[in-house]
Amino acid sequence: PPDRRQDDMLERLLVEKERATRAETTLQVKSAELTTLQDQKVKDAVKLATLEAKLDALKSQGTASSTTKAVSQEAEAKIKELEGQLAVSDRELQVLRLREGAEKESLHAQETLMASCFHELGLRYQKLRLQDQLAQMQASERGPSGS
Among 56, 66, 130, 147, which has the minimal tally of Cβ within 10 Å of its Cβ? Predict the structure, then answer.
C-alpha cells in the first residue's frame, strides 16, 4: 500500500503540474492579448483626437457650404464610430484584466497545492527511508546471532 499511495501522490502531482503549465500558457496568451488591446486603445484614442481636431477646425472656419457640412457630418459619424470602438476595447480590456487576475489566483492555488504535495511526498519518503534503515539494522543484528 505505501507504494500505491506514493504512485497515487506522484500521479496527482503530475496532473497538477500539467494544469499549472496550461494555466501559465493561457495567462501568457491573455497577457499578450491584453497588451495588443491596450495598444489598439491608444491608437484609437489618437485617431479620435485627430478627427476631433479636424472637426473643430472645420467648425471654426464657420463656412456654411454644403461640402463643409457633409465633411463635418462625416467626421462626426467617424468620431462616434471610433468612440464606440474605444468603449468596446475598454470593456474587453476590463474583462481581460479580470480573467488575468482570476488565472493568477488559480495558478497560485495550484502552485501551493503542488508544494504541499511535494512536501508530503518528501515526508513520506523520509519515513520509508528511516523504516528501511531500521529494518536493515535489526536484520543485521539478528543475522550474526541467528547463525
Answer: 147
